[in-house]
Write a structure and sequence with these properties.
Blueprint: H1 4-19, E1 23-27, E2 32-35, E3 41-43, H2 44-56, H3 63-70, H4 73-86, H5 91-101, H6 104-107, E4 109-110, H7 112-119, E5 125-128, H8 134-139, E6 144-148, E7 154-155, E8 158-159, E9 164-165, H9 172-177, E10 180-183, H10 198-207, H11 216-223, E11 227-231, H12 237-245, H13 249-255
Length: 264
Amino acid sequence: MISEKQIETIIEDTVNKIMIGQIVPVIGDDVFYIKDEYDCEVKLHDYIVLRLIKRSGLNTKDMNSFYDKACKGFKGMTYLKKVFKDEYLNLNNEILKLYREENIVQRAYLSKEVYCFLTKRKYPLIITTSYSNILEDKLGAEYRSAYYMKQRKNAGSKSVLQDIGMVDEHDEYDRLAEPTIFHILGSISLGYDCALTENEFLQYLHHLHDTNSRPQRLLEYINNQRYILALGCDIPDWTLRFLLYSFVSDINKREGIAFNGGVI
């Protein structure tokens, strides 16, 4: 078990890394909130699931059990996606409509602590596992958006994986040199499947092992004596490590260095 002294050391070390610009924040969905119709604060993910169920007109004898199953992360999305498909509804399309019709981006907000953390200083790079541009909306227009694209348009009958989307090859360094919010799982604004099931997410991680599909410039930036600080990521810790660690091996081999990042 970790001691109080070790905790103090970790906190002090983390604060020092923040002060000298070695920290890259990774922001997950669990730090986003919204007010419901009763003006009560709820987590954005829970709100979206509940509103999707209500808007769809789905009905079941045990609605509480149905809602609980649908709120369980990737497994919940797998369950909800199947239910929607059985009702001839496309879950991704319904999420897009919900965001648009209920003004989700403007209504949502960050937890006070995370907002203060992100605005105390300007971070050159913030990574997020969120699909929406809520962070850009709350932190200011000076932050530019970059996306990791799972695939691009079909080349013949096969989808071709690619690196950073929406960016010219010669502009990628500039994109990361300026304040940038990088959506590691893609962006809802580009019509991505923002309702990944557990299996789809594992396939996504599998594709990232391919050297042709890794976001190289992003990883080179992280690998340059920087550390990862994950906040509010509902992705299990081992999965987040897998997402950020597993595809830097070729960079290390080429440069003969060890990976300096860490998940705190």
